[in-house]
Design goal:
The complex is a heterodimer of chains A (359) and B (293). Chain A is α/β, with parallel strands linked by helices and 359 residues long. Helix content of chain A is 27%, strand content 18%. Chain A has a single domain, classed as Alpha-Beta Barrel (TIM Barrel). Chain A has nine helices and 18 strands. The radius of gyration of chain A is 20 Å and the shape is globular. With 293 residues, chain B is of the alpha/beta class. In chain B, 18% of the residues lie in helices and 31% in strands. In chain B, strand 7, helix 3 and strand 8 form a beta-alpha-beta unit. Classes of the chains: A alpha/beta (359), B alpha/beta (293).
């Protein structure tokens, strides 16, 4: 296999030499050697991306949400480019759980990649049956439950927007999943109070939270003067949504500091990933930027390691939730008070945080 | 999605450098170094370019047929693409200068299938859809195939590669919608006569979807096998975004929504449900039974 990894982004000169920093992380009982995963729906089942970087080196492949039965998805056009983002309306096209297990998951297993399986359903029963199918499958590192689906039994009300319906799904999945397999609930930002939804799914048994899913959006084609997407509305993703995602992670971590968070939403660089970690994410998923740069997951992992080291962290774990801690004392005149002995870029505006690193 | 296809490894991501850019009628021809990609390229492959530079607000890659490749030379491997500057991404490409850098992924897609026997082939293209046809013609001629070419466009300045076509084709037929050069009309107006005259076994086509639909029909009417390269909007070009799908009938008779980027861009003309592109035809694997999803 030919593989060429290029580096671009803010500090291409610094990502070649990886700093000595512990990047392993625990995500809801799951130990991962790297905190950077793919985001569901942006990496298929990993095989295509393995051309561009070694898929076994990232934290895990979060597979495209799979449903019980084969699904054609929606008509085209399915996407529209937006400023620093895109709108998609794929409609969960997929082969169905049986073909997925036989082909996609089997490929990931044979390749030696960690797989977080994302599941989606139209009813609590469908989620239950998906979880039951996965119960006897080894090599599922975790299950991510995509609850941003319309509930066919409740006039298409999206599960993720209703704390009760969201909790029902998570209860069902948790009950039908191996006790040792973490269940992550993927939350939608399109809610009035994301902390309330988070509490509800955690009480229902979610071991961790993935946030955020896309934001519902719409583009009108000014030439045809009609909606640009065949599905009318679509999910907005990409760097445009990042501040919303960081806010959601920050709010939920503040309210539920012991609940592990897989952060995502517009991560393009290692510094973007760092924002999520500082806000409280124990790991991050890289999604839409993969369409722009198929090597992005590996690149973001390298850049994140460099960014952490530059700020004096010895491990990723130290940085999780750092933004919630009290501001550091002012650095002593003449430079940072830190005794970590690491090189610090004097032009880096954030150097003062080094003095506050615990450990 | 379940497909008959395997994902072929071999696409690579490189930073290319602009060697030069020239105008060809209403189109731009961009020549780029693309270390490693030219050597892997077969006729019908495409590349996906990131546009707007490293901090671009345009996230989606732009896909282009490969017009020509040079595996060795002063600059090492180079490739050429042809585009019309009609959006923000292609406008950015049109402004590139010598030594500017472009992030390139390729070669992508399934190339044209070539006949094992020295058969008679007709190549049909609309507008700059002709870009992949010249390397294809060379490959066909190397196999002893007869190659006839039909190029069409709305007007003379939107024809691409007329001189190339004259060089390689046994016969060249041009059509324009406005009659500014060649036959007044569309490629499909002249295609039946060309197929008749050349006793064509295979028709290769690239161009807009309505043209491909008609070419596939004309080819089928003449008992010719057709290979159509589609131009479908894509976000990634590598098979992960699922935006570039169209309904294609498989060997098992089942219609599936296949990705143009990895299952295509070249499809058998008799397998694409042309009239239903942009829809989920009834009976498609996994089609919704009620309501939207």
């Amino acid at each position: 296999m030919t593989r060429a990894v290029i580096t671009h982004g803010p500090r291409p000169d610094k990502v070649t030499d990886l700093p000595d920093i512990d990047m392993s992380t625990w995500l809801a009982g799951l130990e991962l050697p790297s905190p950077v995963l793919t985001a569901s729906g942006c990496a298929a089942a990993g095989r295509e991306l393995d051309q561009f970087f070694d898929i076994t080196t990232i934290g895990a492949v979060v597979t495209k949400s799979i449903m019980l039965n084969p699904r054609s998805g929606r008509p085209t056009p399915r996407m529209a480019e937006t400023p620093s983002g895109m709108l998609n309306s794929i409609g969960l096209q997929g082969p169905g759980i049986d073909a997925f297990l036989e082909k996609d998951l089997e490929w990931l297993r044979a390749r030696g990649a960690r797989a977080v399986v994302s599941i989606a359903g139209g009813s609590v029963d469908e989620y239950t049956r998906l979880a039951s199918k996965l119960r006897h499958v080894t090599d599922v590192a975790a299950i991510e439950v995509n609850i941003s689906c319309p509930n066919v039994e409740d006039r298409g009300q999206v599960f993720a927007c209703d704390p009760v319906a969201a909790a029902e799904v998570i209860t069902a999945v948790r009950r039908n999943t191996n006790p040792g397999t973490p269940v992550l609930a993927k939350l939608s930002p399109d809610v009035t109070d994301i902390v309330a939804i988070a509490r509800s799914v955690v009480d229902a048994g979610a071991d961790g939270l993935s946030m955020i899913n896309t934001l519902l959006g719409m583009v009108i084609d000014t030439d045809t003067m009609r909606p640009a997407l065949a599905g009318i509305t679509g999910g907005l993703s990409g760097p445009a949504v990042r501040p919303v995602a960081v806010r959601c992670v920050y709010q939920v971590h503040a309210a539920l500091p012991d609940v592990p968070i897989l952060g995502m939403g517009g991560i393009r660089t290692g510094l973007d990933a760092l924002e999520f970690v500082l806000a409280g994410a124990s790991a991050v998923s890289v999604g839409t930027v993969i369409f722009h740069d198929p090597s992005a997951p590996a690149r973001v992992a390298r850049e994140l390691a460099v960014a952490l080291a530059e700020r004096g962290f010895h491990s990723l774990e130290q940085a999780v939730g750092h933004a919630h801690r009290a501001p550091d004392p002012a650095p002593a005149p003449g430079g940072p008070v830190s005794g970590h002995g690491r090189d610090v870029d004097p032009h880096e505006p954030d150097t003062a945080v080094e003095s506050g690193v615990e450990g | 999605m379940t497909t008959s296809g395997q994902v072929r490894s071999g696409a690579i991501q490189v930073i290319g450098e602009v060697i030069g850019q020239r105008r060809a009628g209403e189109y731009h021809v961009l020549t780029l170094t693309a270390g490693g990609i030219p050597e892997l390229t077969r006729p019908g492959h495409f590349v996906a370019l990131a546009v707007g530079g490293p901090e671009s607000s345009m996230l989606l890659r732009r896909a282009f047929s490969i017009y020509s490749v040079q595996s060795r030379g002063v600059y090492g491997g180079t490739l050429e693409i042809v585009f019309a500057s009609h959006g923000k991404g292609t406008e950015w490409l049109a402004r590139l200068h010598r030594h500017d850098q472009v992030d390139i992924v390729g070669p992508l897609g399934r190339p044209f299938a070539l006949p094992k026997e020295p058969v008679s082939c007709v190549l049909v293209a609309g507008g700059y859809g002709s870009a992949p046809m010249f390397s294809l013609a060379d490959a066909l001629r190397a196999r002893g195939c007869r190659v006839d070419v039909v190029l069409g466009a709305s007007t003379e300045t939107k024809l691409f590669g007329v001189l190339d076509a004259k060089r390689i084709a046994a016969t060249l037929t041009l059509t324009t919608d406005d009659g500014s050069v060649g036959e007044h009309g569309r490629v499909t107006d002249v295609l039946p006569a060309v197929l008749e005259r050349t006793d064509a076994d295979v028709v290769y086509a690239c161009g807009p979807m309505p043209m491909l639909r008609e070419v596939a029909k004309v080819a089928a009417d003449h008992g010719a096998y057709s290979q159509c390269a589609v131009e479908e909007a894509m976000a990634c070009g590598i098979g992960v975004c699922m935006t570039c799908v169209l309904p294609v009938v498989g060997d098992d008779g089942v219609t599936r929504m296949l990705r143009s980027c990895v299952d295509g861009p070249v499809f058998r003309g008799d397998r694409v449900r042309w009239d239903e592109v942009g829809t989920i035809p009834e009976g498609t694997l996994g089609a919704p039974v009620s309501g939207g999803h």
